[in-house]
Amino acid sequence: MTELPRIPLAGVIGSPIAHSKSPQLHRHWLKTYGIPGHYIPMDVAPANLETVLRALPQMGFVGVNITIPHKENVMEIADLITDSATLIGAANTLIFRKDGRIHADNTDGYGFIENLKAGAPNWNPRTGPAAILGAGGAARAVIASLLDAGVPEIFLSNRTRVRADQLHKDFGSRVRVYDWVQAGNMIDDAALLVNTTSLGMIGKGELRVPLDGLRTEAIVTDLVYAPLKTKMLETAEEIGCTTVDGLGMLLHQAVPAFERWFGRRPVVDRATRAAALR
Length: 278
Ligand code: NAP
Known about the structure:
By secondary structure, this protein is an alpha/beta fold.
């Protein structure tokens, strides 16, 4: 009897996970490209993470996305880690290799840059400094990718200063730290402004950093994508800046993972955005 090919499975592991848009996104691509695979959201407690990860390949899983609260912990479990995941100190994508080893990668920085290029095609990283608000996990990915892209200097401000100081230590002298109360002044000379805090998201507080000093030529982007147009993007638009919403970062970071798991590089287009927003 001829053996039928195994149906590839992938998914996303977090806790909670019900809010994740990744299932809609990957299922849209599986359907678009006629790939007979499945993508499953999995709510896993931190204590069970390793047991679950070691069992998944035996069930036909080719890999998983990893989200809060596991992005850092998974680095202890992975057998192979890419340079970008090492630099960022966290992984968002795992590939289960045929030899049983777990390969960890971080595609957030890639997603951030691709979204910026798509939303602001004239953006030139070398034009001037980038101002970054926030110093959490997402900020690490954004800083690593911007330095790699050739941004000359990064101005960084975070409510908890020590976290920003740590990023200065990790990434070096091209990252200059400002107190949170100075964030409004920090953005004056920026060619790019990025909000990596969770402020502005539905259910969280508003970002109260004054944007009056922004230059009209500046590009402004927000990692928050619920709502799609945050107050920060609204204000930046009124000033005359080019703005880029955060949904595209989520879509683009998924591209390398889908390709590795299912063997087809997906395209991010209007239909992809619509699928993620459904
Ligand atoms: P995280 O590690 O928990 O960091 C949260 C950041 O927000 C920290 O800088 C924190 O400052 C700041 N913050 C939270 N509440 C604040 C407040 N009341 N006042 C001032 N600052 C506050 O989270 P993360 O993983 O970096 O994610 C940050 C945001 O990016 C989230 O909204 C997440 O959904 C979004 N994100 C989007 C994408 C995408 O694809 N678009 C990808 C990754 C993340 P402290 O250090 O002072 O606490």
